Amino acid sequence: MAGKLKNGWKGRDVISSLDFTRESFELLFSASKEFADGDRARSDLLRGKVVATAFFEPSTRTRLSFSSAAAKLGASVIDLSTEVSSLAKGESFSDTLAMLDSYSDIIVLRHPSEGAALYASEICRHPVVNAGDGSQHHPTQAMLDLFTVLRLKGRVDGLNYLFVGDLRYSRTVSSLLFALTRYKPGRVTLTSPPALGLKPETKSILERYGMSVREEQDIERSVGSADVIYVTRLQKERIPDQAEYQKLKGSYRLTEGLLEATKADCIVMHPLPRTDELPTSLDASPKAAYMKQAGLGVPVRMALLSLILGVA
Ligand code: NCD
In terms of CATH, what superfamily is 17-137+296-308? Predict the structure, then answer.
């Protein structure tokens, strides 16, 4: 079901955050707000619908928040358990997708290979939602990240964003940067060990959309002006050479001292899971927004499912 409507959400696939306009995001966020505020917390909007989840990579938040969102709206969830399905008997990815397509109304897919969601959308008649494929795209995470900024800071435009960590392999970073091209952010600063800088192809996409980013290796020079700090873990599973991983392990960390040097109303976000880059000692700080951010995955995915399935 590739291609789709330029505007509006009904029936559309969600492959990359670059496929969406600011107006589409705004529509999603106004629906998300209703769910987050409890105005429409529980309903049977999706009664009779079947949401399929197919996760070919580990996931806690994305899989469970989609399942929770579907359950809260009265839909049923069927989950392709990749270890116990016929994939283990050698069934092909495309045959598996064709089955999911015939058993459900929408397919939420996570896969290690970039392009898997687009490929699935070409095979499936029903909408496909990319729940993360490869190291570039995780559009629904970008949507919940923007919604978090909007809720906690009141706006997305004009804020200074600081990205810290593995910017090379974190699909949440590229997806959020792509989504930010639809807004007018203030300064966007990237801080990472040299080996983990943004991929040239990601940079050239940003350039194409007129978004300038500044690279600054010294985090101490960049924390003070940030309104939003977005930290990511070292993406161990995507680093080709494990000796390189061992070298990079522990190479960056948001410490208490750094947090103290931030603006009083700065927020710290992280898509989670975390490893050692974000110590638990920061959790009590009012600046720590990552648990709220994870929680907002449910209302955003409720809004997304209802808009795509045409009931919002
Ligand atoms: C992220 C992912 O899968 O890319 N997790 C998530 O969806 N919240 C981030 C990560 O795994 O580091």
Answer: Aspartate/ornithine carbamoyltransferase (3.40.50.1370)
